[in-house]
Amino acid sequence: MGKDRHFLDQLLSRMTLEEKVGQLSLYSADVKLAGAETVNPALTFKAPESRFDDIRAGRVTGVFNGYGEDYVRSLQKIAVEQSRLGIPLIFGADVIHGFRTAFPVPLAEAASFEPELAERVAETAAAEAAAEGLHWTFAPGADLCRDARWGRVVESYGEDVLVASRFAAARVRGFQGGDLSDPRRLMATVKHFAAYGAAEAGLDYNTAEISRTTLIDHYLPPYRAAVDAGAGAVMTAFNDVDGVPASANRELLTGLLRDRWGFEGFVVSDYNSDFETVAHGLADSPREAARLCFLAGLDMCMQSGLYADHLPGLVASGEVEEGAVDRAVLRVLRAKQALGLFENPYRGLGRAFDPAPARALAREAARRCQVLLKNADGVLPLKAGMRVALIGPFAREHQHLNGAWAIFAANGLSVNLEEGFLAALGPDALVVEPGCGIAEPIAGGLDDAAAAARSADVVLLALGEGQHMSGESRSRSDIGLPPAQLDLARAVKQAGKPVVTLLRTGRPLAIPELAELSDALLVTWFLGAETGAAVADVVLGRAAPSGRLPMSFPRRVGQAPIYYARKPTGRPPQHPPGPFTARYIDVEPTPLYPFGYGLGYGRVEYGPTQVSVAELGWSETLSVSCELVETAGAAIEEVVQLYIRDVAASRIRPVRELKDFRKVAIAGGARVVVAFELQTADLRFAGEDGALIVEPGAFDVWVAPHAQAGVPARFVLLDRHGAEPPGVG
Ligand code: GLC
Fold this sequence. Notes:
Layout: H1 5-14, H2 17-22, E1 25-28, H3 36-39, H4 48-56, E2 62-64, H5 69-82, E3 90-93, H6 106-111, H7 115-130, E4 136-137, H8 161-176, E5 189-193, H9 212-228, E6 233-236, E7 240-241, E8 244-245, H10 250-260, E9 266-268, H11 277-280, H12 286-296, E10 301-302, H13 306-316, H14 322-338, H15 355-369, E11 371-375, E12 388-391, H16 417-425, E13 430-433, H17 445-454, E14 458-464, H18 483-493, E15 499-504, H19 512-517, E16 520-523, H20 531-539, E17 604-606, E18 610-611, E19 615-616, E20 622-630, E21 636-646, E22 657-666, E23 671-678, E24 685-686, E25 692-693, E26 697-704, E27 713-717
Parallel strand pairs: 1-2, 1-10, 2-3, 3-4, 5-6, 6-9, 12-13, 12-14, 14-15, 15-16, 19-27
Antiparallel strand pairs: 7-8, 11-16, 17-20, 18-20, 20-23, 21-22, 21-26, 24-25, 26-27
Helix pairs in contact: 1-14, 7-8, 7-15, 8-9, 12-13, 15-20, 16-20, 17-18
Alpha-D-glucopyranose is lined by residues 94, 138, 191, 270-271, 472.
């Protein structure tokens, strides 16, 4: 029944206009989201029970963020047995980094530099969510982000276009697999289309003020990668792009997404983002908002009810053709068909799910996302037999392990830092003191913490951001450590013991003083259910840190946005900064820690970058290699990075662009040669008319451990006729 194309055409032919519009209307399970009505007072909130009538009348295509045997089965039963045509509902949710088992946040996952790990995590999260009746996830977020003030950087894959592209595609593959009707899979949604992460000043929902070539070269490719990986849906962004809100932006939703990229799934708004085109000042009424969004290519409304209220009238007036409504409805019905919902509306429900493998993967992923930024005198891994003082607001809590968008996580099952270290060290070797709150002092906390530090051989200082300090609508104007925490760090340092800082965060933080007073600095992000076990694994040497920074850490918030792939300027920064160059008079222009940086427990020396030829023919492949030597006698997993610079081009190119990366295991003392390949296609950029072009000429190329390291080799790309372009010298 549900498999063939004619079935949908026949179904469509039987639908009334109201039923068609119902397939384009998605509503939240917990309809009254706190605060939402303050944003859009005109919103029509209805009690969940009233949805039953809407479902019976065919006015609802699906529900989001509701799940579980009873909830899903009860609503689906109404849809398939009591509505006129029995069209099944689709159940969506924000399965962003896990479902019941919380995995590391996306920014942490990017730090692993292992897209294949992200694919495994997405597959596991899908199986867990599908077992509770979900069909559709609103992930991956593919928003490139270069400004750490933006709260949703925690949901991004950081500042680099290649990293974001590879992770977004990997997660689509992990969620969807090869057959969406598999009851252990979810349909993926790439979001937020487009350039949501370019919010000016890092202020969430703000305009994305970027040039067209920056949009094409840096912000669009991650969405494209997810679309090319087969994402079933695209979600529009809250922001405007070049003056037109994304939900009503025809150039984006139709010209680019459908006509040029060939996207065949459906486009869903973000929460009321269609209605918000009125607040943006694009539409002068909700009816006009409905018209503009539908004609731009928005298929489905999330929560606003805009199409339910206005699309029938727009069709009656001839402003919208019913044929266009039919095409949008077919895109939604095809998704439900691909999910197998017509054959089995209760797909996945009741399937037993064993959490043990998910917990094991959560621990493995949490280990591989941690980034070691400093390790003076090899204080890590800790020596056996040391007495440890675990101090800080994150030493003994469960609430702040998971980070933003872990709304379904079974928190009671998670392992916090105290539990992780207690299991590893035993009660006699561990003393725990909060010392202060996340943002406020505790009476006597500093004294108790200092005493604990004096009683121990080493201090583990658990500091950073609380769960509520990043995420949606959580932009920060100051990305430093809360003063109460800095006071604690200073007090503990006075005890004269080695200090290992465990930095919990959903973004790069400006922490120069904390880095200075820490003997070791380990970025632990938000690692999810197995936080305590995974951090103990790395700190105690049961696993080595292998993460690298997916985003630059600034010295001060005033440097934001700061990123490695910056343009050279006519007066490039100098070291030390010189007059009349790109510099600040009060801080180094470089980041505190650059993109791609991180340490292991071994040490790797890079030899010179070698190129297979000095002159590369237009259709030839260049091999770029480097010999690496581990010199500390300890095994290491090194993220080897390949960067290029197009030295001179018709549109100026960044000082560096990452073109490949690979995590390589190197035994202690071993020598390995790592080689990459570059083709002409890898050298493309947006030309004057926006089309991707390649220009012959000189290129620098690095095989390096991070974005500020290495000495480049040079090659010349010959033109199509094998000649050196003029001016190459
Ligand atoms: C939110 C977010 C979006 C999420 C949606 C549904 O406002 O912007 O990422 O998927 O609403 O919860």
